[in-house]
Specification:
Layout (H helix, E strand, L loop, with lengths): L11 H11 L5 H13 L19 H8 L6 H12 L1
Length: about 90
């Protein structure tokens, strides 16, 4: 089976999109969505700071090194880290 015709039944971009939507019929997209949902569900339980679950407190030292804020004391930095560790 050939892919959707770029000219489509009505021609142009709208026709291409319309024929592409028609080619998505059948159980394939539904099964794909179910597999995607099943594989992503366990990733919701990843603790903060691991994988792509970023921990803001881990980046404070890097931002301080890059921006060199004036007047910041180690005590203020610790308070900021404690606030983001929350």
């Amino acid at each position: 089976m050939r892919g959707p015709d770029p000219a489509g039944p009505t021609g142009g971009v709208a026709g291409f999109l319309l024929s592409a939507l028609h080619s998505l019929s059948g159980p394939g997209p539904l099964i794909g969505a179910l597999f995607l949902a099943a594989s992503l569900t366990p990733s919701l339980a990843v603790p903060i700071g691991y994988g792509h679950s970023y921990a803001p407190a881990h980046y404070i030292d890097a931002w301080v090194a890059v921006t060199v804020p004036e007047g910041w004391t180690p005590e203020r930095l610790e308070r900021l880290k404690a606030r983001f560790a929350g």
